[in-house]
Amino acid sequence: MHDEPIDPFNGDPADPTAGLDEPGDDPTPDPLTDVERQDVLEDLADLEIYQALLAPIGVRGLVIECEDCREPHYFDWDLLRGNLRHLLNSGRPRVHEPAYDPDPDHYVTWHYARGYADGVHDTLTEGTEDEPGTPTATQ
Ligand SMILES: [Zn+2]
User: Fold this and answer.
1) Which one, 51, 92, 110, 134, has least CB within 10 Å?
2) Residue 95 C-alpha to ligand 1 middle, in angstroms?
3) Which residues line ion ligand 1, judged by CB < 5 Å?
4) How far is the CA of 71 from the centre of ligand 1 (A)?
């Protein structure tokens, strides 16, 4: 009775379907290429890191320059995650619904978030991580 579709992410810890309880009767259309899927998965992973780092210091989400409106949209963390998941599952971006009446002071760009995360990562890994091949003696 094993007639499951082949999962290209089988065994991959980043499996987007992991933990999801999807009904098996829906043949999910998959218009995204592997590369596009990977991009979205990486964005989702980044998002987790950014939220974990930035939410505690008062950042509520990210601001994204909208190509349609040509103005910035402010997205809460949950909204961003929902949009990315939707893109993964449906292959189509969701109609954007920015946060209601956002305070721009509480939103940062992807670029800022990435730079912040890199800085924190460097600080945290200094002397604490002992990966083979990674010299940590330099201080
Ligand atoms: Zn827009």
Assistant:
1) 134
2) 9
3) 66, 68-69, 96
4) 7
111 Cα to the center of ligand 1, angstroms: 19
- Note the pLDDT of residue 28: 55
Rounded CA-CA distance 80/76 in Å is: 6
Position 20: which residue type?
A: L
Average pLDDT, the chain: 79
Q: How far apart are CA 40 and CA 85, in angstroms?
A: 8
For 76, the 3-state DSSP assignment is strand
Q: Which residues contact 136 (CB under 8 A, 6 or more apart)?
A: 126, 127, 129, 130
User: Residue 135 corresponds to which tokens in the numbers above?
Assistant: 């010299």
Q: Tell me the β-bridge partners of 63.
A: 74
Q: Is the pTM higher than 0.90?
A: no
Assigned token pair, 75: 């997205």
- Predicted confidence (pLDDT) at residue 129 exceeds the cutoff of 70: no
Q: Cα separation of 49 and 61, whole Å?
A: 12
Mean pLDDT of 57-83: 90
CA 36, 104, 51, 120 dihedral sign is positive
